[in-house]
Automatic annotation (TrEMBL):
Catalytic activity: sarcosine + (6S)-5,6,7,8-tetrahydrofolate + O2 = (6R)-5,10-methylene-5,6,7,8-tetrahydrofolate + glycine + H2O2; sarcosine + O2 + H2O = formaldehyde + glycine + H2O2
Cofactor(s) this protein requires: FAD; FMN
Main location: cytoplasm
Protein name, as recorded: Sarcosine oxidase subunit beta
Length: 417
């Protein structure tokens, strides 16, 4: 079924009885050409682009829970291409261009809203760093505008500009940045992959990876063994555990990141704002809730809920920046398990085991990467060659030390920055 305004009107007039399920619920076949482990944003996007760009359709996505139940449905939905380093710069630029045509491509409303992002700075040093980053973005072909304090004030007058400790000096504005509805992204890719013949198999946990003579042969699952010539591991916060099934030790730690949402309010914040002197970023959802987050809980954990000290820190930072939010009631908070690589940048690569591929280490920036990651990982799995936009995301950079992409200059343990 093709979705359109006319379809919505027709279904509305005929009692909404004609809608069909967005994807099938097949049983696993004994064998596929390609298995993708993980039905999150990256896994579903990979399957979609394998089918759409490379004509490969004998594919299964194996998901241990339900599609979109992981981080893809837990994030704060920020989409941007404001990275500074070669490697990340071209990759995220590629991803943002895919976002810009995604709804037409998927025939699905993912509510992509390019409402603009303002990264605030509060010192001369931060201004210099943002000016450098903005120039890198412009060189890459993306958009960046350095705002002074009055420029920021014109756009977001409700901030506390006179904070005694960290007054606002200005901001780096990225007009093409914004937000999207996170779980619609999973659903849109799932529907698009299913329509092209990909089997999306839920409640199917991979418990082992079969390897013979240095080549992958398939996987063991809670729904039986499934053979495949190629297997892609795309499991975000569970990367280390799944890779260990193939005897691999990854440069990744799993950490919890929290998010928070208030009650629905009238339109208040019409862009995304990040605070430069504390862990805090905020936007307003289309339902009206203020959606905000901060940083990791700062210790490794597989608990999908966060600790109270970080909740307190985030709320304090929010109150410092925009005291008005103290009047809103917070409805919920939750956590997601992040796959933190040690240079803070992702990995899209083959492993030393023939037919076994790895995609992960997205840290807290993996939502904006979903279309780009799926596109590049599908290219790698189909052709065995890295996509031109993802040539630097190699696994061996952590053993050779060459090509590390330490975007935030935080040293060898990005997760402790
Ligand atoms: C609170 C929070 C806020 C965030 N905010 C942003 C943001 O604003 N912008 C941004 O760009 N990024 C953000 N992120 C990061 C982003 O959400 C993640 O980097 C990205 O979603 C991870 O990729 P994914 O969607 O494939 O992961 P997931 O959705 O977690 O998918 C992985 C899937 O693998 C499955 N799986 C695991 N093990 C197995 C197994 N053994 N067998 C089968 N299936 C398995 C899991 O069940 C899961 O569904 C945020 C993350 C969190 C938690």
């Amino acid at each position: 079924m093709r979705y359109s305004g006319l379809q919505v009107l027709w279904q509305g007039l005929t009692g909404n009885k004609g809608w069909t399920p967005a994807w099938r619920d097949p049983d696993p076949k004994p064998e596929y050409d390609i298995i993708i482990i993980g039905g999150g944003g990256h896994g579903l996007a990979t399957a979609y682009y394998l089918a759409r760009e490379h004509g490969l359709t004998n594919i299964a996505v194996l998901e241990k829970g339900y599609l979109g139940g992981g981080n893809i449905g837990r994030n704060t939905t920020i989409v941007r291409a404001n990275y500074g380093l070669p490697g990340n710069s071209e990759f995220y630029s590629h991803s943002l261009k895919l976002w810009e045509g995604l709804e037409q491509d998927l025939n699905y409303n993912v509510m992509h809203s390019q409402r603009g992002i303002i990264n605030l700075f509060h010192s001369d040093g931060q201004r210099d760093a943002y000016a450098r980053r903005g120039n890198a973005m412009i060189n890459q072909g993306d958009d960046a505008i350095l705002l002074d304090r009055e420029g920021v004030r014109r756009m977001v007058p409700y901030l506390d500009f006179e904070q005694t400790r960290f007054p606002i000096f200005g901001g780096l504005y990225h007009p093409r940045g914004g937000t999207a509805r996170h779980d619609a992204v999973a659903w849109g890719f799932a529907r698009g992959a299913d329509q092209r013949g990909v089997d999306l198999i839920q409640n199917c946990e991979v418990t082992g990876i079969d390897i013979e003579n240095g080549a992958v042969r398939g996987v063991q699952t809670t729904r039986g063994a499934i053979r495949a010539r190629k297997v892609g591991m795309v499991v975000a916060g569970r990367s280390s555990q799944v890779a260990a099934m193939a005897g691999l030790r990854l440069p990744i730690e799993s950490h919890v990141l929290q998010a928070f949402v208030t009650e629905g309010l009238k339109p208040t914040i019409d862009n995304v704002i990040t605070y430069g002197m504390g862990h805090f970023y905020i936007s307003q959802s289309d339902k009206g809730g203020l959606v905000f987050g901060g940083d990791l809980d700062f210790y490794a954990s597989y608990a999908a809920r966060g600790n109270l000290p970080m909740a307190e820190h985030v709320v304090e930072a929010g109150m410092t920046l925009m005291p008005m939010i103290g009047k809103a009631t917070m409805l919920r908070s939750w956590g997601g398990i992040m796959d933190m690589s040690s240079d803070g940048s992702p990995i899209i690569d083959k492993t030393h085991i023939e037919g076994l591929y790895f995609n992960g280490g997205w840290c807290y920036g993996g939502f904006k990467a979903v279309p780009g990651s799926g596109h590049c990982f599908a290219h790698l799995m189909a052709t065995d060659q890295p996509h031109p936009a993802a040539t630097r995301h190699r696994l061996d950079r952590f053993t050779t030390g060459r090509g590390l992409m330490d975007e935030e200059a935080t040293g060898s343990q990005h997760n402790l920055h």
